[in-house]
Amino acid sequence: MSTETAPAPAVASPAATQERKPIHTLVLDTGPLIKNDPPVSTLLAQADELFMLPSIIDEIRDVNTRTRVQTTLMPFVKLRNPRPESIKFVTNFARRTGDLEVLSRPDLHLLALTYELDVEKNGGDSRLRKDPNQRIPNTPRSATSDVSEGKPTQEVSSVEGETTAEVNENVDNTEATASEETTEAPPANADATDITQEMENLEIEEDKPAEEQSAVEENITETVVAKENISDDEDGWITPSNVKKHKEKDSKRLQPTEPAVDVKVGILTSDYAMQNVALRIGLNLLSPAMSRITQLKTWVLRCHGCFQVCKKMDKQFCPSCGQATLTRTSCTTEEDGSFKIHLKRNFQWNNRGNVFSIPKPVAGTSSGKLAKHAGGKNNWGTNLIFAEDQREYEKAVGENRRARRRDLMDEDYLPSILTGDRTSNNGKVRLGPGRNVNGRKKR
């Protein structure tokens, strides 16, 4: 007696059910690697290929971080340097946007590598921009796409023409019937006589008893409630009639869906200047959460005198006019490459203390100590700084730089939070005589 075994159900292979990664090529910067945000597991799960510059490892100075990157990430990363043409394009573009002065050489090479890979993967730079003021990509859409989009419009127009013709025919028919009705309508006097005769023949029916009315109302309410229960059973509850529908719905939920983000080439960086240049070129910019960044908010310095924009946030004098009129202003970079500066409404520049008398210069002494009233009371007029090329300003900047390099573990060093020193002005040099120059001086 032979027994036939049923064939085993077909099992889908892991390769068939595996989802396609949302990012094809990802270029990495040093910042996310140092912070380990996102981790290496996320990078490998979201991107097919990882690219870096060979010089990025040298930028990581921490021994533990460099060891972690070399052991966990470097086996999966491809090292590549950009071509000189790509570097030249990115350098010229960054010069036009004003970010060249704050971008280092590795930053420019990283942007050039992203630009080069984007051109290779997309078959050209049709989706990118060559100028910061350009609002649309380099190459318009092909004529084939226009033709393919033009055909449905013609069909729609023909359908609309047919529908309008049908509507016109219906309107003509209704007008004809209305004219026939008007011609066959009886006179108004005949209508009045018919109405009076009907009123005379009208019979008044007696009211039904209250019991019959209540019974009818109960029947109506019962039928309404029954219909509501049936609809509830069909919608919310699983019944033998709709169990198949619910199974199909649950099976659709379990099926893998396509990723929401599909990026061919993207760059992951935490540098604001690089993000600004990447967005204005049209490159795909990614966040640590592996989502596309379409709007970037940053801060710039804007001169209130000559309206020049400066990207170096440590500047105190305008590089164009040389005045100390730089104000911190917020700006946004959109996905279409537009750059907007958000100004304060009805902003008034404070001219208080602009006119004052400068004390006469005082010669120094061998000990470095000055007389009590030299340069005004309490020596307020000595070492006044009005320009960036002054010797006093260069000396003060050097002293602040050396003070920041001071070892925090020094026994003689106390932080300002313990000493109460609040005159540092966030590490910047004090310019001019101060706010209340014309006020009364302390004796």
Automatic annotation (TrEMBL):
Required for the synthesis of 40S ribosome subunits. Has a role in processing 20S pre-rRNA into the mature 18S rRNA, where it is required for cleavage at the 3' end of the mature 18S rRNA (D-site). Accompanies the 20S pre-rRNA from the nucleus to the cytoplasm. Residues 135-147, 154-171 have a biased composition (Polar residues). It comes from Colletotrichum kahawae (Coffee berry disease fungus). Zn(2+) binds at C303, C306, C318, C321. Belongs to the NOB1 family. InterPro entries: NOB1 (IPR039907), Nob1_euk (IPR017117), NOB1_Zf-like_sf (IPR036283), NOB1_Zn-bd (IPR014881), Ribonuclease_PIN (IPR033411). The keyword Nucleus applies. SUPFAM superfamilies: NOB1 zinc finger-like. Keywords: Endonuclease, Hydrolase, Metal-binding, Nuclease, Nucleus, Zinc. It holds the Pfam family PIN_6. Residues 122-192, 233-255, 404-443 are annotated as: Disordered. CDD domains: PIN_Nob1-like. PANTHER family: RNA-BINDING PROTEIN NOB1 (PTHR12814). GO terms for biological process: maturation of SSU-rRNA. Residues 122-133 have a biased composition (Basic and acidic residues). Transmembrane segments: none annotated. Residues 173-192 have a biased composition (Low complexity). It is found in: Nucleus, Nucleolus. Residues 26-117 form the Ribonuclease PIN domain. GO terms for molecular function: hydrolase activity; metal ion binding; RNA endonuclease activity. Residues 293-364 form the Nin one binding (NOB1) Zn-ribbon-like domain. This is 20S-pre-rRNA D-site endonuclease NOB1. GO terms for cellular component: cytoplasm; nucleolus; preribosome, small subunit precursor.
